[in-house]
Predict the structure of CYLD hydrolase.
Amino acid sequence: QAPESFPPLRNEAAVRVLRGRMKGIQGHCNSCYMDAALFSLFSCTSVLDSMLFKPFPPCDRNVQSILRDEIVHPLRMTGFVRAGSVMHLREQLTDKGPCSSFTNAEKDPEEFLNLIMHQILGIEPLLRLQSGGQEQDCYCYQIFMDKQEDLVVPDVQQLVEHSFLSSELKLVEIPSCFIIQMPRFGKEYKMFSKIIPSLELDITDLLLDSPRECCLCGDVATLECS
């Protein structure tokens, strides 16, 4: 029985609990997309803990209890989640979602997040983006960009900035949670061999109508040049 609250792992505790063999979320039957997403969202941050405790309709509480008691709680307590627990969640998603292959096929993380956050738990969109004067709401942002020869080993800050610039995107407001999916790669092709995690993101230049400093005179800028 899981306690009412179990805080995310931080600093030395995160290293002690999560490092070593048989740590993390055990993979099974193309579950890597979901394992990586769940680990990123819950192991060391509480920003989405409303998904674990917010009252939902009775028909959706089974998904919530599996996520909370069988995945997040053991991950934060022992640093390990067995594959059967993730499969239990996948079975519930298959029953509730429009797709019948959540238990065996590899999916895009965005498809998983949209299903569990929007269709099942009914969470408000986390991001508001604007492109070409049109606004769109979403739960995560996937980095799309052409190969950049000058970016050999980029960090997340560089990738986000390049992606927003090439797609002519702006954040309408500061997001409560900024979930970013790295560039796609597979066995045959990897855009980058390594990506350095940015421990902080500066989104000043990504915000719509945000007051910013002129790079020449230091006053408040009135024009923006890509």
Q: What stands out?
A: Residues 11-120 form a domain with the Cathepsin B; Chain A fold (CATH 3.90.70.10). The CA atoms of residues 182 and 217 lie 35 Å apart.
